[in-house]
RNA sequence: GGAGAGAUGGCAGAGUGGUCGAAUGCGGUGGUCUUGAAAACCAUUGUACCGCGAGGUACCGGGGGUUCGAAUCCCUCUCUCUCCGCCA
């Protein structure tokens, strides 16, 4: 969430910039400022009373000690009213604080200046692109290829779990594992320390990265234990740093993680979601960084370059989009999407989303750092990106590399798969 | 799953109703000494909010209660450890 101070100091700017995210902040910002003023004045009142109570209690203690019972009891009588008042104001204070936080959490992150205006996908701006478009005639879509070569079985997954939980088989499973290992190795080379995080997280973690309370319905919820299945490794990995104060010299912290990801995708089924295009469970390698605020945009570029190197090594035609205000997520300040071209579907598929959250997540996480010699901790910046999400990469690889003999495996993956063609 | 013990500052570990935001040790930081370092010695060392400041308030796992007053007593939740059971 945004910090109160930022909202107070930049009220007009916040309202103006959030228009790009198509969020009308006029009313809520006023309400927040009002609530905070109310909170402050109530707090001042309570604390004055508490101070009085504290000193009175000390007096009483002294009186008892020196045996002045009568005086002591007289003083005790005075505390009753104070107690009442404190209790009343205390309730008011916590109510105000709760309301304030409820409002604060509802304001999206302020987009960076370079976020383009726009309503949705169609207004995203292409920044750059690369790779060669495959020249194929009568390209077969991946959902037919996987049947032909028996490498992924959707029906079997449906039987065992439900739609959107495919079973990878034989060379399909092997290719999946090859991609995971390739992505992890590349991340390792780029200096990202690997972690294997839990796949279920508690409520605090869901809140820390912004999935809760906003996107509650998007996550699978294990209600018996009140745990959520992670929609992305971003959640557990970023939450490593919840309530942490780092040294400035430790920044940036770089992590990567492979995990299965679980998404309910409620209400989002329809056209364009055949085959591997949209799943309830999928694999992804995620990269996460905690950065110094002065460096976070430089680091965002580095992360984009890292992802670019991956799609290039896989020989996939790619393009990089800067998300417009209408398409960028609630918590991000700036997001780049990578898309790869899928030859048979003749469309671009999103395979990575790389974002700078500035201090929006850090403020929820209480993730701070201290400058050398400084006493005051300040909020760090968090960033993350997919590097990469597997299913659509798989889809594009299968479709783009199909030929008479079978499906050719990209050079870089052969050491991982142990075969160079699926036939 | 059953029984018991526990949760205190970066760490270890005192503190069982007031003088406790909290002893002591270690660690960290600054300094003295030294050619430099180590050792020793001295000082300093939690977070947040309010206030221009002096200062005030809150926090001893979370929440609630008793009391004029709670780290300390009571209830409850979570977590950790030990033993038993089950188990990859």
Compact summary:
The protein has 423 residues and is of the alpha+beta class. The chain has 13 helices and 18 strands. It binds one RNA strand of 88 nucleotides through α3 and α4.
Structure overview:
By secondary structure, the chain is an alpha+beta fold. It has 2 domains: 4-104, Serine-tRNA synthetase, tRNA binding domain (Helix Hairpins), CATH 1.10.287; 121-422, Bira Bifunctional Protein, Domain 2 (BirA Bifunctional Protein, domain 2). The protein has helices at 4-9, 11-18, 26-65, 69-104, 142-148, 154-160, 170-189, 203-208, 234-238, 296-313, 360-365, 390-400, 414-417, and strands at residues 125-130, 152-153, 167-168, 193-195, 200-201, 221-222, 227-229, 245-247, 253-262, 281-291, 318-322, 334-342, 347-356, 368-370, 377-379, 381-389, 407-408, 421-422. An 8-stranded mixed sheet has the order 1-11-12-13-16-10-9-4. Strands 5-7-6 form a 3-stranded antiparallel sheet. Helix 3 runs antiparallel to helix 4 (69-104) and helix 5 crosses helix 12. The longest helix has 40 residues, at 26-65. It is elongated and about 105 Å long. The relative contact order is 0.14. It binds one RNA strand of 88 nucleotides through helix 3 and helix 4.
């Amino acid at each position: 969430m945004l910090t109160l101070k930022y909202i107070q100091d930049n009220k007009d700017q916040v309202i103006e910039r959030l228009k790009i995210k198509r969020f009308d902040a006029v009313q809520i910002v006023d309400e927040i400022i009002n609530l905070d003023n109310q909170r402050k004045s109530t707090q001042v009142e309570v604390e004055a009373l508490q101070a009085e109570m504290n000193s009175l209690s000390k007096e009483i203690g002294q009186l008892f000690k020196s045996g002045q019972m009568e005086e002591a009891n007289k003083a005790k009588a005075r505390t009753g009213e104070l107690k009442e008042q404190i209790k009343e104001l205390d309730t008011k204070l916590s109510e105000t604080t709760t309301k304030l936080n409820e409002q604060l959490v509802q304001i999206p992150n302020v987009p960076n200046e370079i976020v383009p205006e726009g309503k949705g996908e169609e207004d995203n701006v292409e920044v750059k692109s690369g790779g060669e478009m495959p020249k194929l005639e009568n390209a077969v879509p991946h959902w037919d290829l996987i049947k032909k070569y028996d490498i992924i079985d959707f029906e079997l997954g449906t039987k065992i779990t439900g739609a959107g939980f495919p079973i990878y088989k034989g060379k399909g499973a092997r290719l999946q594992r090859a991609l995971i290992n390739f992505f992890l190795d590349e991340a390792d080379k780029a200096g990202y320390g690997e972690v294997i995080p839990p796949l279920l997280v508690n409520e605090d973690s869901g809140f820390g990265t912004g999935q809760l309370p906003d996107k509650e319905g998007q996550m699978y919820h294990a209600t018996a234990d009140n745990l959520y299945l992670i929609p992305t490794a971003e959640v557990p990995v970023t939450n490593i740093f919840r309530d942490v104060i780092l040294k400035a010299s430790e920044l940036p912290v770089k992590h990567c993680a492979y995990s299965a990801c679980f998404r309910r995708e409620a209400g989002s089924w329809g056209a364009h979601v055949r085959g591997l295009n949209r799943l309830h469970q999928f694999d992804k390698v995620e990269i996460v960084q905690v950065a110094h605020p002065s460096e976070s945009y430089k680091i965002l570029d580095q992360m984009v370059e890292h992802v670019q190197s991956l799609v290039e090594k896989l020989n996939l035609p790619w393009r990089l989009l800067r998300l417009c205000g209408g398409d960028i997520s609630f918590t991000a300040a700036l997001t780049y999407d990578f898309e790869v071209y899928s030859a048979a579907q003749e469309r671009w598929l999103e395979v990575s989303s790389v974002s700078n959250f500035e201090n929006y997540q850090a403020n929820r996480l209480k993730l701070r750092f201290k400058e050398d010699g400084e006493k005051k901790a300040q909020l760090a910046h968090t960033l993350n990106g997919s590097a990469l999400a597997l299913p659509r990469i798989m889809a594009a690889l299968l479709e783009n590399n199909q030929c008479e003999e079978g499906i050719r495996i990209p050079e870089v993956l052969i050491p991982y798969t142990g075969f160079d063609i699926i036939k």
